[in-house]
Amino acid sequence: MKYTVNEKGYYGKFGGAYIPEMLYPNVEELRTRYLDIIYEEGFQKEFHKLLRDYVGRPTPLYLAKRLSEKYGATIYLKREDLCHTGAHKVNNTIGQILLAKRLGKQKIIAETGAGQHGVATATVCALMGMECIVYMGKIDMERQRPNVERMRILGTTVVPALSGSMTLKDATNEAMRHWINNPTDTHYIIGSVVGPHPYPDMVARFQSVISEEMKKQLQEEIGNPYPDYVFACVGGGSNAAGAFYHFLDDEHVTLVASEAAGKGVDSGESAATTALGKPGVLHGSKTILMQTEDGQVVEPYSISAGLDYPGIGPIHAHLFDVGRVKFVSATDDEAMNAGLELSRMEGIIPAIESAHALAALSQFTFEKDDVVVVNLSGRGDKDLETYIRWGKY
Amino acid sequence: MKNRIKDLFASGKGNILSVYYTAGFPTFDSTAAIATALEKGGADIIEIGIPYSDPVADGPTIQESNKIALENGVTLPKILEQVKLIRKTVKIPIILMGYVNPVMQYGIERFAKDAAAAGVDGVILPDLPMDAFLAEYKTTFEAANLSNTFLISPTTSEDRIRKIDNETDGFIYAVSASSITGAKGEFADTQLQYFDRLKTMKLKNPFLIGFGISDHATFAKASSYGAGAIVGSAFINVLKKSANVASDSEAFAVSLKNNSKS
Ligand SMILES: Cc1ncc(COP(=O)(O)O)c(C=O)c1O
């Protein structure tokens, strides 16, 4: 595989493990053991059984007829929104909790933005009877209230991150600090393809079940495992990494990543990382991030808490750098309209994150026989308040 | 080539006091005044922090000083100007400590050249991993005669400590506990055992103990194991409350080194 991580933990120029020495033993333990653990037969069996019986996989590949008509192509939706807990995030947390158990850890920490990863982590911790603390930016706690209460109902302690911009990047900082202070009994379940090596690779592998299923389902559906396009939104990039993974070497499949442009790429209130960022170090890896000339991390903005992040995973920085993935962006307006459109045309209210992937469709001109898969990463239940405030329906 | 850090340790001096503070905190112009006062009070090394928006290895005290310093308009080029000013009078080693991203954006070669020209003797970048240092920084830093200091912690394996010792030319920063920065009370027995273990390893480089040094007692205790100790958060707390940073900085250094003041 041409685009996967090398043995030093890099994707081209990006990746690595830029961590303080205090975290080195933990990350090193993971690095040396993750592949052996996750490809062990017993692990695979337990992982896939839980994905089937607990998460509800495989998720359907649904032919969206009215959407297809509108955009003049055959459009399928990969229904990650139907996963237990409402988003793709749970694919990763199931994998990581099984790993944490095999590493002998008793406690789990996580960061969350939209709260989907927090809920998915709280869920697997309840399932496995493990203690769980989730860090969440104070601002995100306010705009994703239902998810905060879901985590609490599941028995998780939600700790507000009060530093910096009080959003996802700061929750990640707080989780890392907690891990530095508790290095032996705690596993940190990172929620996207970010963080020091081996996290990006590990999370991508757990999420790769998405494209693995797409291929099988397309084979059954159209007699060919390859679509012409795959669309996904990118916050840190885990649903995109999962949706692209098994197509990366198939260069005839156009992969499209949609970032959050917020109020417009040049408005000063945006989270379109590849458009606005430069290479640097964020949360333990060398990647592309939004920053000042002086190397200070810029506070991003998006209506979607899950995309409100100033970086992208190093795999995406590389895929952008070499041009394998086409990066586009959608504004708040465009995403909200696309979310409402899907609601009205297909009876599916998408997460606002996923609506950014849908919004990218209108930026392309398709051939009539093009097969397009949009990764519908999550459902809109958590976003009801945002939809209501948005109005216009 | 002359390097003030190497000279200091070569002199065999013990009880070395290294004081960390954030550039541009509490005010933009306090950087130079603090340096002068610390030297006067008997500090042996000053570590000037490059403020960063996302200091993951730092506790609330240093997080706050970073935030205020950034609000005060401090940038790396401005810090280098301040160091130049400090070097007009201050003779003790100056280390720049900070996260790697601002250095990367400044440009590694440009940074090494400008820092050395300003009078910087060494660098501590806690989130720069050894492999990246060896591949991309080492030659450049050496050419500029900048010494690089790695951190070790109680969970660092003996093998890795030896590896770090091999790649170090100056001193090793022994983090006293598995924790982020922050002033604490006394050392626990497990920490003392770890200091003992370091002492008996007979490393080629001297080590300074940092994190959790807050007063003369913890400074003296730490110094009895290594070449000396590093104090940060406790000093930031003093600066935060200070009405006269120069006299308070001097008094702080004096009080850490000597038991006369409490
Ligand atoms: C539904 C949904 N999609 C996408 C994301 C963005 O994360 P990632 O880019 O890692 O898929 C989130 C994050 O919270 C989410 O909840």
Please explain how this structure is put together.
The complex is a heterodimer of chains A (393) and B (262). In chain A, strand 5, helix 5 (116-128) and strand 6 (131-137) form a beta-alpha-beta unit. Chain A has 393 residues and is of the alpha/beta class. In chain A, the strands form four sheets. In chain A, strands 3-4-14-9-10-13 form a six-stranded mixed sheet, sandwiched between helices. A four-stranded parallel sheet of chain A has the order 7-6-5-8, with helices on both faces. In chain A, helix 9 packs across helix 11. Chain A is globular and about 55 Å long. The N and C termini of chain A lie far apart (45 Å). Chain A contains 16 helices and 14 strands. In chain A, 60% of the residues are buried. Chain A has two domains: 10-50 and 89-203, Rossmann fold, CATH 3.40.50; 56-87 and 208-390, Rossmann fold, CATH 3.40.50. Chain A has helices spanning 24-38, 41-55, 65-71, 89-102, 116-128, 138-143, 145-153, 168-181, 199-207, 209-222, 238-244, 273-276, 314-321, 332-346, 352-359, 384-390, and strands spanning 10-11, 14-15, 61-63, 74-79, 107-112, 131-137, 157-161, 186-188, 229-233, 254-262, 278-282, 285-289, 325-331, 371-376. Chain B is globular. In chain B, strand 8 (207-210), helix 10 and strand 9 (228-231) form a beta-alpha-beta unit. The longest helix of chain B is centred in the middle third of the chain and has 14 residues, at 130-143. The model of chain B has no long low-confidence stretch (mean pLDDT 96). Chain B has a nine-stranded parallel sheet, with helices on both faces. Helix content of chain B is 48%, strand content 14%. Chain B is built from twelve helices and nine strands. Chain B has 262 residues and is α/β, with parallel strands linked by helices. Chain B has helices spanning 4-10, 30-41, 60-71, 76-86, 100-106, 108-118, 130-143, 158-166, 189-200, 216-223, 233-241, 245-257, and strands spanning 16-22, 45-50, 94-98, 122-124, 147-148, 151-152, 172-175, 207-210, 228-231. Chain A binds chain B through residues 8, 16-22, 24-25, 163-164, 169-170, 173, 176-177, 180-184, 278-284, 291, 293-297, and chain B through 52-57, 59, 63, 67, 70, 75-77, 99-106, 126-129, 131-132, 150-153, 155-157, 160, 175, 178-180. The complex binds pyridoxal-5'-phosphate (PLP). Pyridoxal-5'-phosphate binds at residues 87, 113-114, 116-117, 192, 233-240, 306-307, 351, 353-354, 377-378 of chain A.
